[in-house]
Write a structure and sequence with these properties.
By secondary structure, the protein is mostly helical. Helix content is 87%, strand content 0%. The protein is built from 4 helices and no strands. Bound molecules: protoporphyrin IX containing FE.
Length: 141
């Protein structure tokens, strides 16, 4: 059981890297989008969409492995208040990711204001993500 819990924790970390990469790469892609030629823009868009999909699977994996590690390694014992800060951060991330997604649909339909909002939602998601990382470290040190 101990080994399974550790393997699940490794998967937790791998998903954390895969999803977290978006907070670094997405702003770079976004910044190139404005000045890109139509062809390059389409290519950037397709990369961004794939990354968003990877991010979504990473998020699901984090939640599933997180719950399993909390069960198998910690036996559902919540270590301290930082754990709840982390959970609140995760809820905030899910809210911002959903808002960003609804916003992206509007942007796709040609809504320029929505296109501009995309950056803000990305920043808010990254901020919530930073809260999750910091509180995770304080919770399980
Ligand atoms: C966006 C989602 C998540 C991110 C970015 C994330 C990130 C992290 C990080 C960076 C650690 C390592 C902390 C350390 O050991 O110092 C960690 C550990 C852990 N996470 Fe998550 N996590 C997420 C979701 C969850 C969820 C939903 C749960 C449970 C309900 C969870 C439960 C745990 C547990 C139990 C550990 C401790 C493992 C250990 O050290 O024994 N995580 N997480």
């Amino acid at each position: 059981m101990e080994l399974i819990a550790l393997v699940l924790f490794v998967i937790h970390i791998v998903a954390f890297i895969a999803g977290g990469a978006n907070s670094v790469v997405m702003p770079i892609i976004g910044s190139r989008m404005a000045t890109a030629t139509p062809d390059a823009r389409a290519a950037l868009m397709s990369v961004a969409e794939t990354l968003a999909k990877v991010g979504k699977y990473a998020m699901i994996t984090l939640i599933v492995t997180g719950l399993l590690v909390l069960w198998l390694k910690w036996n559902w014992v919540v270590p301290n208040l930082w754990f709840w800060v982390k959970m609140a951060g995760i809820v905030a991330m899910l809210v911002f990711i959903s808002l960003n997604e609804m916003n992206a649909k509007k942007a796709h339909a040609g809504d320029m204001a929505a296109a501009a909002n995309s950056k803000r939602f990305g920043q808010l998601t990254a901020l919530a993500f930073a809260v999750v990382i910091a509180s995770a470290v304080f919770a399980f040190n």
